[in-house]
Design goal:
Layout: H1 4-24, H2 28-47, H3 51-71, H4 80-96, H5 116-131, H6 133-138, E1 145-150, H7 157-168, E2 171-175, H8 177-180, H9 187-201, E3 205-209, H10 212-215, H11 225-244, E4 249-255, E5 273-276, H12 282-293, H13 304-309, H14 316-337, H15 345-354, H16 361-371
Parallel strand pairs: 1-4, 1-5, 2-3, 3-4
Length: 373
């Protein structure tokens, strides 16, 4: 006898098959209805599933979602020339303030080691609402506006944002705070305005502010008038995006020092979503070692479980450095001796023993305090 989740999956499968049939007959509106209903049932089944089945069923949701988007004919088409003009204008504005032409990143969530809780939170709060707008409106799920990722350095915050942009097919606008600053009065604020204008023209897009504490420091501790004006301008821009409920522009910021950000930026209506990105756990550390050593052709039989156990408190960036350093050491040995050998577990352990982790208990305590844990 089927349980409730299995019944929903069975119904979703039949609806999906119905959608495929209607789409093959050219009935896109009817196919859309089938896909929409199938997605809802599959999502309900996934959310009610145990952890070992949830990911598989969420992947099935994505397949149905892609089918739905393929036949969604409600979106008003943009003339090719008009679209080209908008893109060119947006790219020109970014060039004026010294930012690179944005692209859709190739990084996916599969490339992000561990952090399953973080990824699930992002999927629920950002990715699924942006990808499946009609369903999010039925549940009054709002999206658009701002999100802050915070945590120790080297934990993959930028990598995560690139994966988000890939998932929702949005252009990734990487903002270096230094590019926005100017010695001329008023230019800092104008650069911020140009940035948001460009992002709107290039939408769907994600503006990513790395090290946002450098851009919007607490105004009561800053002696810079330009910084204070910049904070005010950014507050206006972010607040404007939220008030308009712009569904095609999202603002994401990352910081290692969330306690140094101006408090007004963290209030409701600005960066409403705040997600802590912790150091990698033992499972994630093992995967990070595996991903990095997979790039080394001369990697031997390595005990990844032992390496993961020995790197408590090490960040993803620390582990990447360990792999590079161990490989470099063996390479130099081969150059000097004329004898090649593989990189072994002991080579990696030697490097681990020579460097300290970049994350300590005191730093983690500060993040817990900020999170209110």
């Amino acid at each position: 006898m089927l349980d409730e989740a299995d019944e929903k999956i069975d119904k979703a499968t039949r609806l999906l098959q119905g959608g495929i049939k209607e789409e093959s007959l050219g009935h896109k509106d009817k196919a859309k209805e089938y896909y929409f209903a199938a997605y809802r049932l599959m999502l309900e089944a996934a959310n009610a599933s145990p952890p070992d089945l949830k990911k598989k069923r969420l992947d099935q949701c994505n397949i149905i979602l892609n089918a739905y988007q393929r036949v969604n004919v409600n979106a008003e088409p943009v003339r090719e020339k008009e679209g080209d003009d908008r893109l060119s204008e947006g790219e020109a504005l970014l060039e004026e303030i010294g930012l690179e032409k944005p692209e859709i990143p190739k990084v996916t969530f599969e490339d992000v080691a561990g952090l399953e809780d973080v990824k699930n939170e992002i999927l629920g709060k950002i990715v699924y609402p942006m990808k499946f707008k009609e369903l999010s409106q039925e549940y009054n799920i709002q999206f658009g506006g701002g999100m802050l990722l915070y945590g120790p350095p080297g934990t993959g915050k930028t990598f995560i944002v690139k994966a988000i942009a890939n998932e929702v097919r949005a252009r990734f606008i990487n903002v270096n705070p230094a590019s926005l600053y100017s010695q001329w009065f008023g230019m800092f604020e104008k650069n911020i305005s140009k940035l948001f204008r460009a992002a709107a023209l290039l939408s769907p897009s994600i503006i990513f502010f790395d090290e946002i504490d450098a851009l919007v420091p607490k105004r009561d501790t800053s002696n810079s008038d330009a910084a204070k004006r910049g904070v005010a301008q950014l507050l206006n821009e972010v607040g404007g995006i939220n008030s308009q409920k712009n569904k095609n522009l999202f603002i994401i910021a990352a910081t290692n020092n969330p306690w140094e950000i101006d408090e007004a930026m963290l209030r409701p209506g600005r960066f409403d979503i705040k997600i802590y990105v912790p150091p990698p756990d033992i499972v994630a550390r093992k995967k990070i070692f595996q991903l990095n050593m997979a790039k080394v052709k001369q990697a031997g039989d390595i005990d990844y479980d032992l390496l993961a156990q020995q790197t408590e408190g090490y960040s993803g960036a620390d582990i990447e450095f360990i792999c590079k350093k161990a490989s470099q050491n063996v390479f130099m040995e081969a150059v000097k001796t004329g004898k090649q050998r593989t990189v072994e577990t002991r080579d990696l352990l030697d490097v681990i023993g020579s460097i300290k982790p970049s994350i300590d208990a005191e730093l983690l305590s500060r993040y817990r305090e900020f999170s209110g844990i």
